[in-house]
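Could you help me review a protein record that somebody else here produced? What it holds is a sequence and that sequence's fold in token form. I have pasted the whole thing underneath without changing anything:
=====
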Amino acid sequence: MVRGGRMSMDAKEIEALVRSSRDKAKKLVTPQAES
């Protein structure tokens, strides 16, 4: 992701992406395991 000419993202952006992708992965892998 290139934005404003810089390649790197700040820690908060990375953390948010990691969390959201983990949540999506959990829901896809175990749709009913939690219930």
